[in-house]
Design brief:
Length: 442
């Protein structure tokens, strides 16, 4: 296949950096890394201090491999320097602020210069192009507008593409469905958990999503599983694509899947990826899972050097059939900080989701509740069943409960109490789903 074209034979000049020959890409990354390090050193006291401690100067970064000599940056650094301590541009050059709420404590504040917004827009536009969208598409943007980066990030990219954007933001599900139907929407952007909710509501409203022109879903901002993708694609005519990003680096558009749906490609000319062992901080071999570490290569307002994302992934070195030279990351299904330790066993919410999805008869609406009763950890998984199933006999429900319980036990090696709950009893989220309620910390 001509590497300048996607599966549909279309090529857009904005995608050109996706296909740079590797030597040229590495050269560009090195040049950009060197100027990024210089900028951070000259303008951000925290970076200068840490490099001085290591007796490291920007001139010591002579190859991409030298990146490992640089200190890491963590979320705590962002909190400690709240709100503007890591800015490398004067306030009069900042044209946008965003903030990520975080689950505890102070928010993380991020900033953009005019050029940063331009780069972000390009990254989002390339994300849409990667999944076959172009001008003429009608994109319903149900990511939240506001301090969250999802709404405005996707908005600017879609507009630059020349697509028609519907800036509906999150929530108001019935209205979302009406617009999906009436506006001839061809692509939707939202969290995968919210889309599951949309599917369910549409069914109740008698709207058959399969008859609509909707053909692409740009889903991200939270972990989701391959099983969830299959569910979504089975219930609609759309292809579900995984988009990854985080506020600290830019927002959505750090990495995006192409039409082959085989893991998001990182826009490597803008963001340099590494994968490390989270406990030692040492790089792991290619293809091995570890914590994803990202360095911004162009960010002016807030350069990030070796930012520890806490997201667990691996880098795929093999080239993708789409011809992009950008490396792919393994789907992010867990974070170093979402691991629960239950009776001494390490459990990730995504393992539970995968187990539940493998059993027919359940909607992927679930809540994990962890508690400590008389000194012993208890794990309860509340699972919503479909209306038709709920009307079934007590025996059938009990059988389902046992199947779920066994499926979970097989995956996590622990017995969990599975409780089937009526349709619509678990809270729906309009953005990122909150799957775990850990009462032990309350
Ligand atoms: O969630 C940016 C974004 C918006 C990405 C819309 C994609 C679509 P934050 O609120 O800062 O930014 O949250 C970033 O969300 O470190 C991951 O843990 C998680 N995350 C984001 N995308 C994915 C994904 C936005 N595709 C944090 N798969 C990240 C798994 C994801 N987790």
């Amino acid at each position: 296949m001509n590497s300048n074209r996607d599966l549909q034979g279309t090529f857009h000049p904005a995608s050109a950096p996706d296909y740079l020959p590797l030597p040229q890409l590495r050269q560009l990354q090195l040049q950009r890394l060197q100027s990024m390090v210089q900028r951070a050193y000259d303008r951000v006291p925290l970076y200068r201090g840490r490099m001085d401690e290591r007796q490291l100067t920007p001139a010591d970064i002579r190859s991409l491999g030298d990146i490992v000599r640089l200190p890491f940056t963590t979320k705590t650094d962002l909190r400690d320097t709240y709100p503007f301590g890591l800015f490398a541009s004067p306030l009069q050059e900042i044209v946008r602020f965003h903030a990520s709420s975080g689950t505890t404590g102070k928010p993380i504040v991020v900033a953009y210069t005019q050029e940063d917004v331009r780069d972000w827009t390009q990254a989002m536009m390339r994300s849409f192009l990667a999944c076959g969208l172009h001008s003429g598409d009608v994109i319903q943007n149900a990511y939240g507008y506001g301090l969250f980066t999802g709404g405005l990030g996707a908005h600017y990219g879609a507009e630059a593409l020349g697509a028609g954007v519907i800036p509906i933001s999150g929530g108001n599900t019935e209205r979302q469905i009406m617009i999906l139907k009436d506006f001839g929407v061809t692509a939707i952007c939202c969290t995968p958990s919210y889309f599951i909710h949309l599917i369910e509501r549409a069914r109740e409203m008698g709207v058959e999503l399969k008859t609509l022109p909707l053909r692409a879903g740009v889903f991200g901002a939270e972990p989701w599983t391959e099983g969830m993708r299959q569910r979504i694609e089975a219930e609609t005519n759309l292809k579900a694509y995984d988009i990854y990003g985080l506020s600290e680096i830019i927002g959505p558009g750090v990495a995006m899947e192409c039409l082959h749906q085989s893991g998001p490609h990182i826009f490597e000319d803008l963001f340099y990826p590494e994968v490390i062992d989270p406990s030692s901080g040492e790089p792991v071999a290619d293809g091995v899972e570890g914590e994803l570490v990202l360095t911004t290569l162009c960010k002016r307002a807030m350069p990030m050097l070796r930012y520890r994302t806490r997201d667990i992934s691996a880098l795929h070195e093999e080239t993708c059939a789409c011809g992009r030279t950008l490396r792919r990351i393994k789907r992010i299904s867990r974070r170093t900080d979402d691991m629960m330790i239950i009776r001494g066993v390490n459990v990730f919410p995504s393992q539970i989701e995968a187990a539940l999805l493998a059993v027919e008869g359940t909607l992927p609406h679930y809540q994990i509740v962890v508690d400590r009763v008389k000194g012993l950890d208890e794990l309860e998984i509340q699972v919503e069943v479909t209306a038709e199933f709920f009307g079934d006999t007590v025996g059938a429900l009990e059988q389902l409960r046992q199947r779920l319980s066994h499926a979970v036990e097989r995956v996590i090696g622990l017995r969990a109490r599975v409780r089937l709950v009526e349709p619509h009893t678990l809270q729906r989220s309009e953005g990122k789903a909150k799957r775990v309620l850990d009462k032990r910390k309350l």
